[in-house]
Amino acid sequence: MDFVLAFVYVVMLGLLIGRSKIFRIEGLSGLWLMGVFVLKVLVGITLWYIYTHHYDDTPRYTLDTFKYFDDAGFMHTAFHQAPADWLRLLFGVQNDLPSIQPYLEGMNNWERADTLIAINDNKTMIRANALVRFISFGSYHVHSVVFNFLSLLGLVLLFKGLRAMVPLPAWVFLLAFVLPPSLLFWASGVLKESMVMSAVGCFFYGFGHWWAGQGVRRHLFTMILGFCLLISIKPYVVVSLIPAILFLLLSRTSENGVLLKWLGVHVGVLSGVYFAQWSDRTDIVGVLSHKRDAFVNVAIDTAAGSAIEIAPLGTFWNLLAALPSSIVNSLFRPTLFEASGALLWMAAAENAVYLFLTIVALLCLRVKKKREWRLILACFSVVICVSSIVGLVTPVLGAVVRYKVPMLPFLILLCTDLY
């Protein structure tokens, strides 16, 4: 029954994708987008199968693809028993009331012990699943179909937003926004990555069209919506986008001195990180160091099979010294020489392709128009910033593969646009 209901939603949403203007990409027919949607749904089923049959000895409430879905199911019971309490849970108000406590205690992942900033992204995912629950009737695969629809919508919006800034051929959408294996796999399930790509696309759709001079009022809502979703799901992605956004804002009205502006922004950001460490409230180095240590402890306690050594932080200068190795770890590890298991082998082969594309891009570097250089430098900024944060705090290669997913379209776009 689950698959039958999911199939009905695939047909309905597929027809919507084929006919909706928002999904229309010049140079690609609606059938292509419908095919991409079906592909993502099939990958989502594969992800479900892997988590169901290859992690059957792992408690279900710890598995990412199930834990938010299951907790949302428990939260849904509040809607029938006490609708007012369900609304309080949805909007995060008065959650200290005695009537709320049984629902909080029944959810395994509502609270989390450690966050990068004072935002609990687990709650956002549980709430999103709780809303989908009204049309899924408890079917996991319907949730997967809906999340794939939102993920594809985000990827289309991201492409359109960047295309508004610089002309991009339609084939780039397939190459950079659909086919990267890690992006296709991890952003095709009931996971945070699907929502992240939806939020990134929403933000850049609004920002890109405004940057291109198409008016702020028309696109302000999508920018705000994308920003709010991002900061409530993956705050580190918002932090990683800040230098690129600042650079694009500075270079919007003038194409002169773009490299100096790019360098100035990043030197300014690093200076801000340096001076921020003198206050407990703004100590970014301290936050990253705490996150790194917590992640290392988890890796040790769980005997993570793909654990690696990462440099200790603690001071700004330690962080600065660790940046090169952190970026390399994020971009090019696992390598073919250290992969074990099907997922890591897939990631290693993918990383080998990225290394090849990077080398070719540098060897075939050619003169670009100033407008194109602004997008290239912005993409480079996103890649470097995401890689830095992920590499600094993540000592498990399996986690690195997932956490770097939001930067993959920018990485491939960067490589393909350089030559």
Short structural summary:
The chain has 419 residues and is mostly helical. It contains 19 helices and no strands.
User: How much strand content do the residues show?
Assistant: under 5%
Gross morphology: globular
Tally of DSSP helical segments: 19
Q: What is the gyration radius calculated from CA atoms? A: 21 Å
Structural class by sheet pairing and helices: mainly alpha
Q: Which stretches are low in confidence, meaning pLDDT under 50 for 5 or more residues running?
A: none
- Topology as H/E string? HHHHHHHHHHHHHHHHHHH
Give the proportion of residues in helices: over 70%
Q: Provide the residue-averaged pLDDT.
A: 90
For the largest beta-sheet, the strand count, sense and barrel status come to: none
Number of strands: 0
Terminal Cα separation, in Å? 50 Å
What keyword list fits this structure?
single chain; globular; mainly alpha
Describe the structure.
It contains 19 helices and no strands. α6 (121-136) packs across α7 (140-165), α12 packs antiparallel against α17 (370-393) and α15 (316-332) packs across α17. It is mainly alpha-helical and 419 residues long. 71% of the residues lie in helices and 0% in strands. The chain has helices at residues 2-19, 30-53, 64-81, 83-91, 101-106, 121-136, 140-165, 170-178, 181-186, 192-211, 220-233, 235-250, 258-276, 284-301, 316-332, 342-363, 370-393, 397-403, 408-417.
Question: SSE layout and pairings?
Answer:
Layout: H1 2-19, H2 30-53, H3 64-81, H4 83-91, H5 101-106, H6 121-136, H7 140-165, H8 170-178, H9 181-186, H10 192-211, H11 220-233, H12 235-250, H13 258-276, H14 284-301, H15 316-332, H16 342-363, H17 370-393, H18 397-403, H19 408-417
Helix pairs in contact: 1-2, 1-7, 2-7, 3-4, 3-6, 6-7, 6-11, 7-10, 8-19, 10-11, 11-12, 12-13, 12-17, 15-17, 16-19, 17-19
